[in-house]
Write a structure and sequence with these properties.
Elements: H1 5-9, H2 31-45, E1 52-56, E2 71-74, H3 80-90, E3 95-101, H4 102-108, H5 113-119, E4 123-129, H6 164-170, E5 175-180, H7 184-196, E6 200-206, H8 210-213, H9 221-224, E7 226-227, H10 238-245, E8 252-258, H11 264-278, H12 284-290
Parallel strand pairs: 1-2, 1-3, 3-4, 4-6, 5-6, 7-8
Antiparallel strand pairs: 5-8
Helix pairs in contact: 2-7, 6-10
Length: 293
């Protein structure tokens, strides 16, 4: 990671957040848009690269930490959230992002999702949803739509796809949003809001896979989707957010839900204060004696 004086003393620009490694994604992959969106959001917020940690699992999208000039960790499959949680709980001053794909996060990593959300750990989780397993060559994923032909569904997928944004709201995530990898302006706006939100932020980004889903996947979505505006939509209404998110069309983009509540760290600090007050009541001998039969 660079530590030159220019980065430390001058206004940060997008290249300060880039590692210099050339992405190996296929031409046209939506993950390029997410990488660009993250660098632009961090630039806009002027968060120093050494104050950012980006954690991923396994998959095409999970290569992303290597392309950023921040702290990063490419974990094992489905384990981005517990490792990102550990980073945040170890140092609350670090801006933590977890990134990954639909297969990584909604399949093998699905068990970690509700717990990171309900604990309201202060991090941003960016799920790049291309509805396919790309790195392992085109198998259907938990979000693959009914009827889709993939390497493992030659006659069309028939399993009901999972809805990540709806799950996030049901799991009590305190910030939930949807965006498109191809709409840089709105993606940056949403990522900025997610990173600034103190609590667990979940952003589902529809990211096309040219190689295994074809060029038509999500290509015309910019014309079909509508963006929620806080002037006529209340993102604090959880029931309305659930109603919108459960629509199978998934054509409502923007901030679906936002709630301000104490984070895990806030609760921990309160418990720590109480414990420090109680420590004068006990000695080591008292504690040792309590374990004797």
């Amino acid at each position: 990671m660079s530590t030159n004086n220019t980065i430390l003393t001058s206004e940060l620009v997008a290249k300060d957040y880039k590692s210099g490694l050339k992405p190996v994604w296929c031409p046209g992959c939506g993950d390029f848009g997410v990488l660009n969106g993250i660098t632009k959001a961090l630039t806009s917020l002027q968060i120093p690269p050494h104050d950012v940690a980006v954690i991923s699992g396994i998959g095409c999208s999970s290569r992303l930490p290597g392309y950023l000039n921040t702290y990063g960790f490419n974990a094992v499959h489905g384990r981005a959230l517990p490792i990102a949680s550990g980073v945040k709980l170890a140092n609350d001053e670090i801006t933590v992002l977890a990134v990954g794909g639909d297969g990584d996060g909604i399949s093998i990593g699905a068990g970690h999702f509700p717990h990171a959300a309900r604990r309201n750990i202060d991090m941003t989780y960016v799920l790049m949803d291309n509805r396919i397993y790309g790195l392992t060559k085109g198998q259907s994923s938990p979000t693959t739509e009914v009827g889709a032909n993939t390497k493992t569904t030659s006659y069309g997928a028939f399993e009901t796809p999972m809805n990540p944004a709806m799950l996030a709201i049901a799991y009590n995530a305190s910030f939930v949003a949807r965006s498109l990898a191809t709409d840089t302006k709105n993606l940056v706006r949403i990522l900025e809001a997610a990173i600034e939100h103190r609590g667990f932020s979940f952003v589902q980004v529809f990211s096309r896979c040219i190689t295994f889903r074809g060029e038509d996947q999500f290509m015309d979505w910019r014309e079909k989707v509508s963006w929620l505006c806080e002037e006529d939509y209340d993102p604090t209404d959880r029931l309305e957010a659930l109603r919108i998110s459960e629509d199978p069309a998934m054509d409502k983009m923007g901030i679906l839900y936002r709630e301000l509540r104490p984070t895990w760290t806030d609760h921990y600090q309160e418990i720590r204060k109480l414990a420090m007050k109680d420590k004068v009541k006990y000695t080591i001998d008292d504690l040792t004696e309590s374990f004797r039969p």
